[in-house]
UniProtKB/TrEMBL annotation, chain A:
<keyword id="KW-0449">Lipoprotein</keyword>
<keyword id="KW-0342">GTP-binding</keyword>
<protein>
    <recommendedName>
        <fullName>ADP-ribosylation factor-like protein 6</fullName>
    </recommendedName>
</protein>
<comment type="similarity">
    <text>Belongs to the small GTPase superfamily. Arf family.</text>
</comment>
<keyword id="KW-0460">Magnesium</keyword>
<keyword id="KW-0966">Cell projection</keyword>
<keyword id="KW-0206">Cytoskeleton</keyword>
<dbReference type="GO" id="GO:0060170">
    <property type="term" value="C:ciliary membrane"/>
</dbReference>
<dbReference type="GO" id="GO:0003924">
    <property type="term" value="F:GTPase activity"/>
</dbReference>
Automatic annotation (TrEMBL), chain B:
<dbReference type="GO" id="GO:0005113">
    <property type="term" value="F:patched binding"/>
</dbReference>
<dbReference type="GO" id="GO:0005813">
    <property type="term" value="C:centrosome"/>
</dbReference>
<dbReference type="GO" id="GO:1905515">
    <property type="term" value="P:non-motile cilium assembly"/>
</dbReference>
<dbReference type="Pfam" id="PF23304">
    <property type="entry name" value="GAE_BBS1"/>
</dbReference>
<dbReference type="Pfam" id="PF14779">
    <property type="entry name" value="BBS1"/>
</dbReference>
<dbReference type="InterPro" id="IPR056419">
    <property type="entry name" value="GAE_BBS1"/>
</dbReference>
<dbReference type="GO" id="GO:0034464">
    <property type="term" value="C:BBSome"/>
</dbReference>
<dbReference type="GO" id="GO:0005119">
    <property type="term" value="F:smoothened binding"/>
</dbReference>
<feature type="domain" description="Bardet-Biedl syndrome 1 protein GAE">
    <location>
        <begin position="484"/>
        <end position="585"/>
    </location>
</feature>
Length: 194, 587
């Protein structure tokens, strides 16, 4: 943690970060966000998201505002309108759905080639979800199928998760907090605040 | 150029390849046809499965081994059960209103429809037997009573076969094909059972009962070898309607609702497409095809028929042909492509040349290569993706292609009739004169035609006469009398010109002597120096260039200077050239 962060945490200020949560339908985006919320704010039944939801949760140093976008085919064209605001992206993949891995790759390629994302060093966190399902692909296999090694100009990280139990989620959020790019982008804000 | 290509590969790919190759299993072992393939949500969780009635492997001895009902979910085979007979059709349909909404499967094979619920056998419907010749029945009765032996039976059945209008039953036909030593045994085995004549199902479809909902209760529509089309009630499995067509149906497409109005489009073995409607037991419309039908698909209000002469033809619902497009290879399989979320409907056509083409009306929107010829294909929701095409290839592979979300399904630019065709011509209004003229033309057509021909012939005659006169007078640039050719060039802007005359002796061997060139001109306009040129001996094949000066003295006018080739001792010129002088610019 840098000096400003310490200062900020003494002051009780938390940095606001806008995060986009993307991925195909039925990949577990809403479930993941639900798990990240404090236990008293969690809901029991998750239904397919229509349009998008805005959720907020806090970690030790950051205050996240998550745009939980709907992954259904007819709502996917909404994603690109929020790329500008996003300071980080969480991309959720259903690692048990081998058939649609190519669709996930297609959507990821579209995202990475979008003018609002292409030239920014925006951190991307991949959740290879549904690790508990039998025959699901490992996170290494998922990153191979999505050709993640080709992403050279953005920091990225992939975690195997099970959103139903919340396994692996914290690892991903910790990585997101620690990325330099997110920090650097925010330091300027603190200078103004202080 | 390099930059463009390397900078935007994604955009280029989007435009040209609408399909994502999601899955390919070369060893899936599928041997099936489009009619034996369907996509349905068998588990009721919103994830569609692929149901295939596999025809089995024809390589392992007799046809009819390893016939299976296979269910695929995602990339894997989840269920497999044996079929009793060779399947001729498979459909998923809702037979009741029970929750959860899980469709039943109907597999047609032989004379029966086997209905499966939750992948378990539920009901077997057998088509009613056909009428048996009473004489045939009588003969078999006598056999049972021991009144006639097998030799007499054979003769009697042969007689019935040739005379009777009704065909013989399966048993009699089988009996006649046996060797004499096996006949006795066959008769002993079968004489106790009553004689029956059964037909066979050739194709099957579904028809919504009363609502157009996606999950509305559907009736089964069955086409049989005996040239009949049946509509079955989904709950009681009784025959609701029976229609006759002139030939056994091969492919069918059904639209509408049974209780309201429906259309059954059937392509039959006589090379015609018949359109059946509610309350008619005979076809309402008939389309005679140029060749046999290999696939039939309805897209909106157009019926698209693939023919064996490598054409794809579109018809209205009343059987009027709208268009026909030639294909580069024979059709192996066809399927409709309806994408309600994008308001798109087209036809997928698989060709023997390993291509999968997407047609919207007569326009090809896309051509995709496949590793092998595709024998069966179906389009719809598979897994959780709406725009998916599932294919089975000749070698038994299973291919799944998913339509890109960003794929453009636009008709190609420049497709269809050229733009000029739609521009309205500025046709003037019909005047009284025009009407009078038209009437006159109609009444006196032959007379006018004759008058025209007379004038035409006269013109030709005049032309020929003038030409022959010119030749006789040698006033043309080529001559009949001597093989001398002349052409001229005028150089200069004026008033001084240089006239260069090129003379060629076109004779093969003989040189010509004693020729001279003479200029004839208007002395008020030009002076020519010298006006007469003597030609040297003209060796054959050589071009002689002679020059003379022409000065324009009069007013600035264009005139003709005649150049005559003269021979000593002849009064008429050998040939004459007319030179059009240019306008002198400097005057």
């Amino acid at each position: 943690m840098g000096l400003f962060d310490k200062l900020a945490s003494w002051l009780g200020l938390k940095k606001e970060v806008n995060v986009l949560c993307l991925g195909l339908d039925n990949s577990g985006k809403t479930t993941i966000i639900n798990q990240l919320k404090p236990s008293n704010a969690q809901t029991q039944d998750i239904v397919p998201t229509i349009g998008f939801n805005i959720e907020k949760f806090k970690t030790s140093s950051l205050s996240f505002t998550v745009f939980d976008m709907s992954g259904q085919g007819r709502y996917r064209n909404l994603w690109e309108h929020y790329y500008k605001e996003g300071q980080a992206i969480i991309f959720v993949i259903d690692s048990a759905d081998k058939l649609r891995m190519v669709v996930a790759k297609e959507e990821l390629d579209t995202l990475l080639n979008h003018p609002d994302v292409k030239h920014r060093r925006i951190p991307i966190l991949f959740f290879a979800n549904k690790m508990d399902v039998r025959d699901s692909l490992s996170s290494v296999k998922v990153s191979q199928m999505l050709c993640l090694e080709n992403i050279k100009d953005k920091p990225w990280h992939i975690c195997a998760t099970n959103a139903l139990k919340g396994e692996g989620l914290q690892e991903g959020v910790d990585w997101l907090q620690g990325t330099r790019d997110l920090q650097d982008g925010l330091c300027l804000c603190y200078i103004f605040i202080i | 150029m390099y930059f463009i290509l390397s900078g935007s590969p994604i955009e280029i790919a989007f435009h040209f390849y609408p399909w994502l190759e999601a899955h390919s299993d070369p060893v899936a072992g599928l041997n099936t046809l489009s009619s034996c393939m369907d996509l349905a949500d068998l588990s009721g969780d919103g994830e569609n499965c692929l149901v295939v009635a596999d025809l089995g492997s024809s390589s392992s001895g007799s046809l009819g081994s390893g016939m299976k009902l296979k269910v695929f979910r995602g990339t894997s085979l989840v269920s497999e059960s044996s079929l009793l007979d060779l399947p001729s059709g498979l459909v998923a349909f809702f037979m009741d209103l029970n929750e959860p909404r899980v469709p039943a499967l109907a597999v047609a094979s032989g004379p029966c429809v086997y209905v499966y619920k939750n992948l378990r056998p539920y009901f077997k419907f057998t088509l009613p037997g056909l009428e048996v010749d009473p004489l045939e029945q009588e003969v078999w009765q006598q056999v049972r009573l021991g009144q006639i032996d097998t030799v007499a039976l054979k003769d009697l059945l042969e007689g019935i076969r040739t005379k009777s209008e009704l065909p013989l039953s399966q048993r009699s036909l089988r009996f006649l094909s046996l060797e004499p030593e096996n006949m006795e045994e066959f008769v002993m085995m079968h004489q106790g059972q009553p004689i029956r004549r059964q037909t066979v199902i050739t194709c099957m479809g579904t028809l919504k009962k009363s609502t157009a909902d996606e999950d509305g209760v559907s009736c089964l529509v069955i086409g049989t070898e005996s040239s009949e089309v049946y509509v079955l009630d989904p709950e009681a499995f009784i025959i609701l309607a029976k229609m006759c067509v002139p030939a056994p149906p091969v492919v069918m497409d059904v639209s509408g609702q049974f209780d309201v109005e429906f259309r059954i489009t059937v392509a039959c073995r006589d090379g015609a497409v018949y359109i059946l409607r509610r309350d008619y037991d005979k076809p309402k419309y008939c389309v005679e095809l140029s060749s046999h039908c290999v696939g039939l698909v309805r897209v909106g209000k157009t019926v698209v028929v693939g023919c064996s002469d490598q054409t794809l033809q579109g018809f209205t619902q009343k059987g009027k042909r709208l268009w026909s497009v030639p294909l580069p290879a024979p059709i192996t399989s066809m399927a409709p492509m309806r994408l309600s979320s994008r308001g798109f409907s087209g036809v997928l056509v698989a060709l023997a040349s390993c291509e999968l083409r997407l047609y919207q009306d007569q326009w090809v929107l896309n051509t995709q290569r496949t590793p092998e010829p595709v024998t069966a294909l179906t389009f719809g929701r598979y897994g959780r993706e709406d725009g998916t095409v599932v294919m089975a290839t000749q070698g038994g592979a299973m291919l799944v292609h998913i339509l890109r979300r960003t794929a453009s399904l636009q008709k190609p630019e420049g497709g269809g009739p050229p733009g000029a065709q739609s521009v309205r011509l500025n046709v003037p209004k019909k005047s009284q004169l025009f009407v009078d003229q038209t009437l006159r033309e109609r009444e006196q057509g032959p007379l006018m035609h004759r008058a025209f021909h007379r004038d035409l012939l006269r013109t030709r005659l005049r032309t020929a006469q003038a030409y022959s006169r010119a030749l006789e007078a040698s006033t043309g640039p080529s001559s009949e009398q001597g093989p001398v050719k002349l052409h001229a060039a005028v150089q200069g802007l004026g008033p001084n010109f240089r006239l260069t005359l090129y003379v060629v002796n076109a004779a093969a061997l003989r040189p010509i002597t004693g020729l001279s060139l003479c200029m004839l001109y208007d002395p008020a306009l030009y002076t020519v120096a010298p006006p007469l040129l003597r030609l040297p001996l003209l060796a054959p094949g050589l071009t002689y260039a002679l020059q003379t000066r022409v000065t324009c003295t009069g007013p600035a006018l264009c005139d003709v200077i005649k150049v005559c080739v003269l021979q000593e001792g002849r009064s008429a010129p050998l040939l004459t050239a007319h030179i059009n002088m240019p306008l002198p610019e400097a005057l």
